[in-house]
Design brief:
It is a single chain. The protein is α+β, with helices and mostly antiparallel strands. Helices cover 52% and strands 12% of the residues. The longest helix is centred in the middle third of the chain and has 42 residues. The protein is globular and about 80 Å long. The chain has three domains: 108 residues, Butyryl-Coa Dehydrogenase, subunit A, domain 1, CATH 1.10.540; 101 residues, Butyryl-CoA Dehydrogenase, subunit A, domain 2; 156 residues, Butyryl-CoA Dehydrogenase, subunit A, domain 3 (Up-down Bundle). Strands 2-3-7-6 form a four-stranded antiparallel beta sheet, with no helix packed on it. A three-stranded mixed beta sheet has the order 1-4-5, covered by helices on one side.
């Protein structure tokens, strides 16, 4: 399968415009002004997603031969970072969408339906969502209770999902299920379904501490389609080669953007304090220096992980190895913990000005969203999975 060139290349479109710069502009001019109302009202960031559509950035990963921008993993990570600096909800939705696109691109084996579907993603700027979690499996997305029921070249799948982010705004879904009703819970596949072929019954709301604009409500999803909409690779391969690394890399990148914005607010607070008392060092200056060092370490960690994934992009054996999974799991845990630490430190630096919800020094939304990075995909569950692998893993 052809994949985007990944090393030592920065894609620009025919006008010479860098997609990362376009995303940064959208973040500053569209996402940032709406971020507070998106959070306050727990609403979908419609303005920012519409702007990303207009810039054709929903098709960023789709190859140019299929009408997309053919961006690299590095560029996607940078887009998530710059969006995260302005609106965590916009960045998270964008990242989740691109994870779904990557799964189709890398596991469709160029079959006709998926080639056309990717063209539609690029041409019509479709927004894709994920339905991998399920009631009754305890957060373990590598097992399913629901199953694909197939007959006469058609399938149906019915799934009770505790969370499907932005489901009511999505144009399509990637759904995990058992291969057939008699299959083991771990014998999973993934199907691609269009919104027009999907019924959604909302069963729970989303009034959360952070990431409120992801609209991650619970649904019963009932979908149907043709058997050609079933991705040919098994879900364990999709997960290890694509979903796990793309998720942890893109999420970590948007968390980096959030952390950077919090640090910038704290730095401005310290600078303004210094201007008020020339010749003195503000009380928070030392703490700021320590926090900036944490941010630099977080940035270097993520950059290293992106480079590793790009270097192994087509190495099926390496991407399926326990060592690689352990490193990706470790990245997610470290990045989310670093975000909480940095956001907490910036709150201490800014004090009551950071604690208040309004004002240029406010980091209260950053701190609330930071805890979502830790619990929405549970660090404890990820560490538990890593612990199980460590029992049999040999050092490489």
């Amino acid at each position: 399968m052809a994949v985007p060139q990944l090393v030592d290349r920065t894609y620009t479109d025919s006008t010479g415009t860098d997609p990362v710069h376009v995303a940064a502009d959208i973040g500053a001019k569209v996402a940032a002004p709406a971020a507070r109302s998106v959070d306050r009202d727990s609403r979908f960031p419609a303005e920012a997603i519409a702007a990303l559509r207009d810039a054709r950035l929903l098709g960023a990963l789709v190859p140019r031969r299929l009408g997309g921008l053919g961006c690299t993993v590095s560029q996607l990570a940078e887009i998530c970072r710059v969006l995260g600096e302005h609106c965590a909800n916009t960045a998270m939705i964008y990242a989740m969408h691109q994870i779904q696109v990557a799964s189709i691109l890398r596991h469709s084996r160029r079959e006709r339906f998926f080639e056309q579907f990717l063209r539609d993603v690029a041409d019509r700027q479709l927004l894709l969502a994920s339905a991998t979690s399920e009631v009754g499996i305890g957060g373990d997305v590598r097992t399913s209770l629901c199953a694909v029921e197939s007959a006469g070249g058609r399938f149906r799948v019915r799934k009770q999902a505790p969370v499907i982010s932005y489901a009511e705004q999505a144009d399509g879904f990637l759904v995990t299920a058992r291969r057939h009703p008699d299959a083991a819970p771990s014998d999973q596949l993934m199907v691609v379904v269009r919104r027009d072929d999907t019924l959604l019954e909302r069963v729970s709301g989303w009034d959360a501490l952070g990431f409120r604009g992801t609209c991650s409500c619970g649904y019963v999803l009932d979908a149907h389609g043709d058997d050609e909409q079933i991705l040919p690779d098994a879900y364990d391969e999709i997960s290890s080669r694509t979903m796990l690394p793309f998720s942890h890399l893109l999420w970590s990148s948007l968390w980096l953007g959030m952390a950077a914005d919090a640090v910038n607010r704290a730095r401005q607070f310290v600078r303004d304090a210094a201007r008020k008392k020339p010749g003195s060092v503000p009380a928070g200056a030392t703490r700021l220096a320590e926090t900036m060092a944490l941010l630099a370490s977080m940035r270097a960690d993520i950059a290293s992980a992106v480079r590793e994934y790009e270097s192994l992009y087509d190495d099926v054996e390496a991407l399926s190895a326990m060592g690689f999974a352990l490193r990706m799991n470790g990245l997610k845990v470290r990045s989310s913990q670093a975000l909480v630490h940095i956001a907490t430190e910036t709150l201490g630096i800014c004090g009551i000005a950071g604690y208040k919800a309004d004002g240029k020094y406010s980091v209260e939304r950053h701190l609330r969203d930071a805890f979502g990075a830790v619990v929405m995909i549970s660090n404890d569950r990820i560490l538990g999975a890593s612990a199980a692998m460590l029992l049999i893993h040999r050092d490489e």
